[in-house]
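name: query_chain
kind: protein
chains: 1
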Amino acid sequence: MISFTVRMKFSPEDRDEVTELLRQLTEASRQEPGCLAYIPHRVEGDSDTFLIYEQYTDKAAEAAHRQSAHFAKFAIGGLYQRVLERSREDLTAIV
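structure:
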């Protein structure tokens, strides 16, 4: 199982558009066969920072996500064009 978070910071003027892009990306990503969880969050106290918790069955499922048409459209063509800062944190399940 592959689990990680992606943290992204955006300008306040992009907040509504980013929220809509995340909504569309989430809806499509949750339909992927290897996607176990795809949960976007807004960070409390910092409404311009978003965090996505993602979980996939394996590396192949994660790779398929990154190669999907919806990832190209909503992440690469949308979110990545507006992001000010981006970081990824890989996670290891305890149980």
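note: The beta strands are 2-9, 35-43, 46-56, 85-91.
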